[in-house]
Amino acid sequence: MSRFSASNQVQMAQNTHNISELYRLVDLDVNEATSVNANPCLNIATYTPGTAQVETATAEGTVTANPGGTAIITVTAANMTGSPKDVNVALLLNDDASAIADKIRTALAADATVNAFFDISGATDKVIITAKTPAKYDKTMNCRISAGTATGVTEKVTSANTTKGTKDEIVHPSILFFPNGWNGYKYWLGYTCYDNGSDVWENPCIAVSNDNTTWITPPGLTNPVEAQPAEGYNADIHLFMSPDEKTMYMCFKWDYNTTRSLYLRSSTDGITWTPKVLLFGNDENIINCLSPGVIWDGSQYKMWTVTQGATPDLNTICIRTASNPYGPWTEPVECTTVLPSGVGPWHLDVRKLGNQYHMLLTAKEDSKNIPYFGKSNDGLSWTFCDTGLHLDAASEATSLYKHTMFPMMTHEGIKYGVWMGAAVPYYLFFTTLSFDKSKIAYDGNKNVMEAIYGLGDWTFCDTFNRSDTVEGLGTPDKTPDTGVDWASVSGNVMGIASGKAYLPVAANSKSVVDLKTADHYVEVTVPVLGTSGYILIRYTDESNYWAWGYNTAGDIVCSKKSSGGNSYIMTNSRIVAGDRFGIKAKGNIFYIYQNGQLVYTLTDAANNAATKVGINLDNVTTRFDNFIAKPV
After folding, report:
1. How many helices (H) and strands (E) does the chain have?
2. Would the N or C end of the chain have less CB density within 10 A of its end CB?
3. Considering 120, 144, 163, which residue would you say is the last residue of a domain?
4. Model pTM?
5. 214 plus 303 within the same structural domain
């Protein structure tokens, strides 16, 4: 039984396409990646036998008590009934280590509780207890020898762990998620067994699930999909899909002495797989095909692999491309990677959201294996987080291994579900990566989506998704409740370009609509900054209004055109391209929001009865999008 693990959580997971539609700007901050781990839990059946844990206790001393005494043997095991169990052993004067061990073996074999859980063996001074059933490594398992009344027996508090227990250890996870299912299952996971760290078991297997928690072997499939080779060993399974999602591909590595090759198989049902086809390698020392990661990026297949250097810190990542997964593949090109000094790539997994590539890289850092999250706009130049994620494995694991991820859409923004591989022992556990800015992006997009569909109290929404024009902003496209058009009130008329509001001819220009309420919230996205841009609120005329926006430095600026025309500049927060900027006017207080977070407040009663809101532009570069408003 192999161990898979996941938190029992409800997920609103979506595929890459749907997430990219919702998040117009996908630019995750690699240094914001955070994780909450879940505990190991569930199992699936695989083809390996598992390894039973073995503990060895060594008797020492000679009984000096006359005519003898009773030693106490304490046997402990996490899953043994009645653990810890004390067993009394009668000893005689002058019993030496061999005699003591022999009588301990006899007493343990005669105890129903101990004998039900362990096989008892050994010779001379050794007492060997072997778990009858393979299970994960139990750090509490122990056979303690206490002298009791048998003076002369040496106290032995701990036994030696001769063989760590393993229960079909597994590595190399590679996950695919299908919101509507693929051949009956939403989650398809490739993995290889690695029982007791033996590469003979490292052959590609498949597991499926509909809840990311309960995993089974696909009915009709016998694991491993790729059998143990006559020479060498398999490793590094990776699953990926055709553009139409009708065909699943399985890529894996074969190693033998100094030869390394990459093979590919495919299936349209996940059960019947085509024979393996060599992609490259087999006749030379191929050092650049570790841990393949393949995706279809919209126009071609891209494959990332790790190239081994003389030492792990000299490892590099390279990329190949092909129009067909069976090749021919281009020669590898070394990627540019920004990683801390002394950190070397080892295992990777790649996904694409929108126009951005994301990588979860397990890197070798000193004597540790540390995950790093990275991003790239072209798949060739990569930037990774400044420090590793330092995600902890479960307590009994000594290190981390290879990880795999799939995109999720949650109420907290973009997340990645991550199956992580632990090492020594080798197993998988589930965690999630989240990003602060993606939550902000989600909050902003949630407001827009609610306004578009008339949910909540949103009364005004203009996405500007209509024909290009230089004749004014015209009729808002999503505002059935206001029933008013944009009005140009000063300067030049605005227009629409590629679904964005802009100013065709530079001048200090304003366009407004009437919300018919003086207490209101207004919000806009700024995809292109230009030199400045403003939201108008509580607008009456050219002598009475408030303009909130940004200057050439990106500083948040307030311009008050009423009772003296005061202005304020807030340098504590700066607008950058892609931000959402919002202002709430409630009574005499203004609340200023940047990406959903309150950044400034101001109290001023000037013009607090005006009901119009709008846009103020003075340059031809700035672009505004998704202008929304509601009463508060």
Report:
1. 4, 44
2. C
3. 163
4. 0.60
5. yes
